[in-house]
Amino acid sequence: MELTLTVLGTAAPFPLPDNPCSGYLVQCGEASLWVDAGTGTLMELQRHVSLENLTALWISHVHGDHFADVAALYYAYAFGDVSRKTKLPVIGPIGWAQRVSAFVTNDVAHDMSTIFQVLEHDVDEMANVVQMRLRGQLVAHNAPSYALRVDASGRSLVYSGDTGLCPQLTEMAHGADLLLCEVGCRDQQDARRHVHCTPEDAGQMATDAGVAQLMLTHLAPGLDGEEALHRAAAIYDGPITLAMAGLTINI
Asked: What pLDDT score does 194 carry?
């Protein structure tokens, strides 16, 4: 079985034509894990897996460009013609279900636990999703945000979520086959203020962690992709690619 990554979207902080916000599909065997549900990613997800066959959803944090489509997913299961044999496990930060419920509730309250298996991040215990082992780690951001490590079929993927330069992500990514890292700021002053990575930060963590490959994603508005690759490559001498909506790779 191969561990594969499909990029659903990378845009920040709002979706663009042909590029939804942050979202990724990680698959191994029969398991399909949706990672981050940024605006527009539910549409792209269905190009690759049916909602009936989705195995689980994992949310790094509750900023809209990583989280907004959870409400749309709820509507699909609660009011659409999507039929599941079991509730979908959704793993997210503490209180994620209450936030979605508050958004969709009008004259009738909506309890997420009627549709989803509501799970919250615990850095010591993470779910096994069929052939995948998942581990989360709290990282540095201006809201509680988690990185994710997926191990399956002898391969490993680490996704940064939103984070600044931090030793927790470097430690989690140690020896990984792929580090999928955000570059949400153009310069160090912005990175310190907004707690995101610059291309140099991503390159530094990839180097320190000894990862086999680095993929840059969630670029800051106005940051050119070729520039980001060049700047990261000044720090990290391994293979570097740019995440693009629709891209699928074997890890």
From this structure: 67
